[in-house]
Design a protein that fits this description.
289 residues; alpha+beta; Jelly Rolls; Arc Repressor Mutant, subunit A; 2 domains; eight-stranded antiparallel beta sheet; 9 helices; 39% helix; sequence-specific DNA binding; DNA-binding transcription factor activity; Homeodomain-like_sf; transcription
Length: 289
């Protein structure tokens, strides 16, 4: 049994030949699948295997070929049960796909929106067609064709539109222990916000409401589950993680205190100073070397 937890996000590493886009094959060696650290990448994956894909309060068991759509703000885990598996995947930013079309954000798309069911079971004919599109993308990805970006967008949009004509999988099941599952995904999503990589973009998720929305659950349900499983309220987990990150940034970067506060979601330095002092008993500048 192979365990794989997807992060649904990406980093502009040296293997990305195109800004904001990558396509690659999937086979039995997960170690060869690119690992990404940024949190703004969407994913489309065709996979043939027996797997269990789990969300906050539901999951799906697959046995055959599926087409999967991943949203970077909706965490999930992917457990591959069978030893043999194969397929293709591509990751891309919204800016890449919507470069010339601002009519609708991907968050509003039926395939990527919160609460959707973006997993499709494919028959042999559908698998052959989607496989051929990914194979064409992989071939073109290695070329120097001047309009390669537009060509890749066309292939991705063709996959999206073909998928929208299909019926989403109806094999979702409810977790026996929803509280444990929601708590696990909350803690995973919380950890994904860190470490802070830039001082120019403030922390996106700061409140229990933010996390509940990303997990597609009611905030009261999230709070009850987290308290039941961990014994601590949701806010305590968020606060502790922010404070730990603040201490690390104060001790190990040369960012100004105001920049650190901004990166952690505080609009004004005074808000950050008061927050830090209230929770630690000291002011941020006391941690500077």
């Amino acid at each position: 049994m192979n365990n794989q937890t997807e992060t649904q996000s990406c980093d502009f590493s040296s293997d990305l030949k195109m800004k904001g886009f990558k396509v690659y094959p999937i086979n039995g060696d997960f170690s060869k699948v690119p690992v990404y650290s940024r949190r703004d990448f969407y994913k489309i994956c065709i996979n043939t295997s027996k797997s269990i894909i789990q969300y906050a309060d539901r999951g799906i068991e697959t046995d055959g070929t599926i087409l999967f759509f991943g949203n970077p703000i909706i965490p999930y885990s992917w457990e591959t049960v069978s030893e043999n598996y194969e397929g293709y995947a591509c990751v891309f930013t919204e800016e890449f796909l919507k470069a010339k079309d601002r009519s609708e954000t991907l968050h509003e798309s039926p395939l990527f929106k919160i609460g959707g069911t973006p997993i499709f079971s494919l028959n042999a004919e559908q698998k052959l067609f989607v496989d051929s599109l990914f194979q064409k993308m992989i071939k073109e990805y290695e070329t120097d064709y001047v309009f390669k970006d537009d060509l890749m967008r066309s292939y991705v949009n063709l996959i999206i539109h073909e998928s929208m004509k299909m019926q989403p999988s109806e094999n979702f099941f409810k977790h026996k222990n929803a509280s444990s599952r929601i708590t696990s995904l909350f803690l995973e999503l919380l950890e994904r916000q860190f470490p802070i990589e830039t001082k120019n973009e403030p922390l996106a998720l700061k409140t229990p409401q933010d996390y509940a929305q990303s997990l597609a659950v009611h905030v009261n349900h999230l709070n009850r589950s987290v308290k039941e499983v961990t014994g601590k309220p949701t806010t305590a987990h968020i606060t502790e993680r922010i404070i730990n990150e603040a201490k690390a940034l104060l001790q190990h970067t040369d960012w100004s205190i105001s920049d650190i506060g901004y990166s952690l979601g505080f609009e004004y330095p005074s808000y950050f100073n008061n927050y830090f002092k209230r929770l630690t008993g000291t002011v941020p500048k006391s941690l500077r070397m």
